[in-house]
Write a structure and sequence with these properties.
Distance between the termini: 11 Å
Radius of gyration: 24 Å
Number of strands: 15
Strand order of the largest sheet: 3-5-6-7-14-10
């Protein structure tokens, strides 16, 4: 009996230790564009979308200088990218301010976000890949998250910017591990009844 109890405890411990990460694939996400007064009009992202192949939010905004911006956000299992292109100045548009110009909120249907971190920034017009860290420090004014939302704000937007962010999700119990734990507990209970 002692051997079976010890074996059951070991099995339960191993089963509970088996965990997978939730990830964003298959999750419903919404994105919200929050332009400042530096923009005179905008077309909001279409929401919600299921994360998976082709989960892309698309919107546009017109700033007070008459520049029209195409803004896209691509969400994948463990990351998302955000990019914009200015459409009216032949790939030369840009806008900057001391105050945040554009806010972006990404929300997930379940509280599974552990952390979000800056990954990289590239710009196809002003410097290509490997932009200096100062690009991120100057133009990304804030990045924060809680368990179900990510909030971003930008002081500057330059045509061709592509920002990459990494998303870590909380681990969730593997369904098969839970079934195994249930089977072991049931077996232990049945065994203890037979002994009595």
């Amino acid at each position: 009996m002692k051997t079976s109890v010890v074996a059951s405890i070991v099995m339960c411990s191993l089963a509970l230790a088996v965990r997978t990460y939730a990830g964003l694939d298959g999750r419903e996400v919404t994105a919200l564009m929050e332009p400042s007064s530096a923009f005179v009009g905008f077309t909001q992202f279409s929401s919600p979308l299921l994360v998976g192949s082709g989960a892309v939010f698309s919107g546009s905004a017109t700033d007070t200088f008459g520049q029209v911006w195409d803004i896209t956000m691509n969400v994948s299992d463990t990351s998302f990218s955000l990019g914009w292109t200015e459409l009216t100045r032949g790939n030369m548009g840009g806008i900057a301010s001391d105050n945040p110009l554009m806010g972006i909120t990404l929300a997930v249907d379940e509280p599974i976000i552990s952390s979000v971190s800056f990954g990289s920034v590239a710009n196809s017009t002003y410097g290509g890949t490997g932009l200096p860290e100062s690009w991120q420090e100057v133009w990304l004014s804030s990045l924060s998250n809680d368990s179900s939302t990510v909030d971003l704000a930008f002081h500057g937007m330059w045509t061709g910017d592509v920002w990459q962010f990494n998303v870590a999700t909380v681990p969730e119990p593997n369904t098969s591990a839970l079934v195994l734990v249930g089977a072991v507990v049931g077996w232990v209970c049945a065994r203890s009844r037979k002994v009595r």
